[in-house]
Amino acid sequence: MTDLTTAVPAATGAAEPRPRRRARRLPPSLVVGAVLVGLVALVGLVSLVWTPYALDDTGDGARLAGPSAAHWGGTDRLGRDLLSQLMAGAGNALVVAVASMVVAGVLGVTVGVLAGATRRWVDVTLLSAVDLLIAFPTLLLAMLIVTVRGASLWSAVWAIGISGSAVIARVTRVNVARVLREDYVTAAHAAGTGWWGTVTRHVVPNVWPTLLVQLMLLGGGAVLAEASLSYLGLGAPPPQASWGRLLQEAQSTMLVQPWGAILPGVAIVVTVLGLNLLGDGIRERTDPNLRGDR
Amino acid sequence: MTALLSVDDLRVETSTGRTLLDGVSWSLDAGGRLGIVGESGSGKSLTALAVLGLLPEGMRATGRVLLDGTDLLTLPPRALGRVRGAQVAMVFQEPLTALDPLMTVGRQITGPLRLHRGLRGSAARDEAARLARLVHLTDTERILRSYPWQLSGGQRQRVALAMALACEPRVLLADEPTTALDVTVQAEVLDLLDDLVDRTGVALAFVSHDLPVVARVARDLVVMRDGRVVERTTVADALAGGEAAYTRDLVAAARAVTGLPTPTRTAPEDAR
């Protein structure tokens, strides 16, 4: 912290600007969140090339075994290795999280910017659509999509992304409308900047930090939603691994082999917690109102 | 002599039919210095916004705003965009909120340069540095790399002035540019503005509730109240005792509060 003492101007005259603090400490939530998400991502990546056992390998018939040297996480009722299932599930969970964020982000930001920055009737029309979407249960939407496209990872992504986009659209619209009322936007117009220039130069950068946090929270929600959908059999079908389906399969044997439920449960908690902490950390880093040096 | 910018019977109404400006007329000659005074809510800032078509949504302006004979009120958006910032520039009351908090000052100054003068890269940066020196900013290198919140109020308003003057506009609309500043800084910025108007020959329309401040930089005076023009006169005449009772009240009030000097600015020879 030596740079603080040297950077503070000697005179506190009104004309002296504040010193720039380059080396800010990273918020702990950002670090912890990044580590957790990084861990899950790493496991997911490893599972692409290597898992202790093949996902459909029922092995030597040791069913519902507890953790052992051969099967660190134990086995399920078919004798499949739980750890391998968990690892593969990590990849799927993150794919769903990221892909849903992309779908929700693209849809939501487009609709939100249009609603916030255009004429009244466009705003009203889009908002009504968004309200309808918010009222529409994610589960029902997922069932509709699964009916049309069949149960798959991508059906889950579309369902989660589309329903998540409603919230993103609302947050975007409110923030776009707020930024558009700011003096610097009027000043930009007064300087001759057009609609598009104002949106790209001023509105999007000022709305982005809030959106990024929302998207991260949505990513956490997407992991939960994917688990729920595959619990109900609306997610990725076997042999693809999914934490939600692991939970569902372990439900009936929980008393015999509790690890089958505990491990996927912990995996879900860690991933969602990681994504939420990451969102919080990013907000602390980027939100000018929360910057420590104000 | 035809006026450079003339506002002719300007009316602004809300969508609910309330009249905010009622037949406002004034004109500004090339190189002129016009002060627009009035209490809060008299419509003086609204007049400035209406000139550039920057009224909040739901307000409608009628009448004429002629810049060199072109009516800005009927100009299509694209053409109006070429007038804003290039021909008619504006400085706002609160420089902190009028600057984008997430953008360095340098990028904000180069914005209009890129837009209207097509300057890019190092040419734009050099010009930004020149403008920063024009508005008497010291240590320009560091200031151009700073964010608005890292600067003092006076520095911020100098930055806003630099942005406004970036494209050598013919008219500068200043909407209470010193109101948010403390008194000593206010005096510095007023002196700077005075000097800039002299050096660049830009015509100034200075909006303020503060008569002593207006008296420092303006020559002609428009007194507004309740969306109407009460009196059009000169600063010197107003200080000597205006025609309208309201003008005399304003002068008396200003004297009582601040000890407004009896006109020290040597009244321009035959001001009218």
CATH class of chain A: Mainly Alpha
Stretches of chain A where pLDDT is under 50 for at least 5 consecutive residues are 1-17
CATH superfamily of chain A: MetI-like
Reported CATH architecture of the domain at 5-100 and 170-258 in chain B: 3-Layer(aba) Sandwich
Helix/strand class of chain B: alpha/beta
| Percent range of helical residues of chain A | 55-70%
CATH topology of chain A: MetI-like fold
Give the radius of gyration of chain B: 18 Å
Strand and helix layout:
The complex is a heterodimer of chains A (294) and B (272).
Chain A: H1 2-7, H2 28-49, H3 82-117, H4 120-135, H5 138-149, H6 153-180, H7 183-190, H8 195-231, H9 243-251, H10 259-286
Helix pairs in contact in A: 2-3, 2-10, 3-4, 3-6, 3-8, 3-10, 4-6, 5-6, 6-8, 7-8, 8-9, 8-10, 9-10
Chain B: E1 5-14, E2 19-28, E3 33-38, H1 44-51, E4 59-67, E5 70-71, H2 77-83, E6 88-91, H3 95-98, H4 105-117, H5 121-134, H6 140-145, H7 153-165, E7 171-175, H8 183-200, E8 203-208, H9 211-217, E9 220-225, E10 228-234, H10 235-239, H11 245-258
Explain the overall architecture.
The complex is a heterodimer of chains A (294) and B (272). Chain A has helices spanning 2-7, 28-49, 82-117, 120-135, 138-149, 153-180, 183-190, 195-231, 243-251, 259-286. With 294 residues, chain A is an all-alpha fold. Chain A has a single domain (26-53, 72-290), classed as MetI-like (MetI-like fold, Orthogonal Bundle). Chain A is elongated, with a radius of gyration of 24 Å. Chain A starts with a helix and ends in an 8-residue tail after the last helix. The model of chain A is unreliable at 1-17 (pLDDT under 50). With 272 residues, chain B is of the alpha/beta class. Chain B has a domain at 5-100 and 170-258: P-loop containing nucleotide triphosphate hydrolases (Rossmann fold), CATH 3.40.50.300. Helices cover 40% and strands 24% of the residues of chain B. Chain B has helices at 44-51, 77-83, 95-98, 105-117, 121-134, 140-145, 153-165, 183-200, 211-217, 235-239, 245-258; strands at residues 5-14, 19-28, 33-38, 59-67, 70-71, 88-91, 171-175, 203-208, 220-225, 228-234. In chain B, the strands form two sheets. A six-stranded mixed β-sheet of chain B has the order 6-7-8-3-9-10, sandwiched between helices. Chain B has a four-stranded antiparallel β-sheet with strand order 2-1-4-5, with helices on one face. The two termini of chain B are 13 Å apart. The model of chain B has no long low-confidence stretch (mean pLDDT 87). The interface between A and B is medium-sized, with 25 and 41 residues.
